[in-house]
Amino acid sequence: MDQARYINKDETVFNDAQALMQLNKNLLLKGPTGSGKTKLAETLSETLNRPMHQVNCSVDLDAESLLGFKTIKTNEEGSQEIVFIDGPVIQAMKQGHILYIDEINMAKPEALPILNGVLDYRRKLTNPFTGEVIEAAPGFNVIAAINEGYIGTLPMNEALKNRFVVIQVDYIDGETLFDVIKNQSKLQDDTLINSIIKFNEDLRTMTKQGQISEEASSIRALIDLSDLATVMPIERAIKRTIIDKLEDTREQQAIVNAVELNF
Questions:
Q1: Which end of the chain is less packed: N or C, by CB atoms within 10 Å?
Q2: Entry's SUPFAM superfamilies (predicted)?
C-alpha cells in the first residue's frame, strides 16, 4: 500500500502547491477536517525530499512550543550547564526543512506574531530565550492548515493570512476516492469499495443539508472504515469508525438510516 501519496483528480491542487513551494511561498491549505491537507503536506515533503517538522496548534500553544526551551544538561566533565533545545520552528529554519503548522486557527492570536519575521521576506527570527538571530537555510518552507468554522477555531488574523497563498483542499469522490481506498486501506473488494463510495455520497449530501457534521464523511474515517471492513461486518465497522464518534443522537440515527439503505 502506498501510504504517503496525496491523490486528487484535480491535479492543479498538488501541482500548484509544489510550484508555490519552489517559489518559496508560504502555503495555507484550507478545507474541512479529513480532506487530506496533512497528506498533501506529507506528499510535498516526500516529493521535494525535504523532512517536515510539525506544530499542532491549540489554545495552549506558546513560544516554547514553537521555538524550544531551556533545560539543564550534565556535560562530559560532570558539571551542569543550561542549554537550549531547539523547537520545530528553529529546527526547520536551521536545517532548511518544511515547517507544517496544523490547525493554525486553533492557536490564540497572541501566540503567532512571533512568526511574522519567519513568514515574510526576511525569513529571520530572533530567539527571545537566547537572543540568537536565526536566518532560514535554503529550502525552508512553511505550510499551514486551517479548518474554518469548527468549534474552538478563531478567525485568522488578516496580517498573518496575508503572508500565505491559499489552496482549497476539498473532499474527493468517485474514481479518485476508489483509488485512495484501494491504495491506502487493506480493503481490496471492488464491490464493497463501490458500496462504501455510494454510502459516502449519501453522507456528503446529509452534510451539505446540515443533518450531520463534516467529520462523519472524512477521508480519514473512510480509510479506517475500509480497514475494519476486512475483519468485521460493514455495519459494525461503520458503527466503530463513524457512528460512535458522534454525540448527537439525531446524527447517529441519520447514518444508521443511510447504512440500512446502502448495505
A1: N
A2: P-loop containing nucleoside triphosphate hydrolases
Smallest CA-to-CA distance from 232 within 261, 192, 191, 190 is with 192
> What ranges make up the beta strands (E) of 1-153?
27-30, 52-56, 68-74, 80-86, 98-102, 124-126, 133-135, 141-146
* CA contacts within 13 A on the Cβ side of 167: 27
* Predicted confidence (pLDDT) per residue in 172-230, tens digit: 788 888 988 998 899 999 999 999 999 998 988 888 787 887 777 778 889 999 999 99
Asked if 165 and 20 count as a contact pair (C-beta separation under 8 A), the reply is yes
CB 156 within 8 A of CB 42: no
| Grid coordinates belonging to 134 | 536565526
Helix (H, G, I), strand (E, B) or coil at 72: strand
Q: Which residues in the chain belong to E strands, given as ranges?
A: 27-30, 52-56, 68-74, 80-86, 98-102, 124-126, 133-135, 141-146, 165-168
Per-residue pLDDT tens digits for 129-153: 999 999 999 999 999 999 865 555 6
By residue count, the chain amounts to: 263
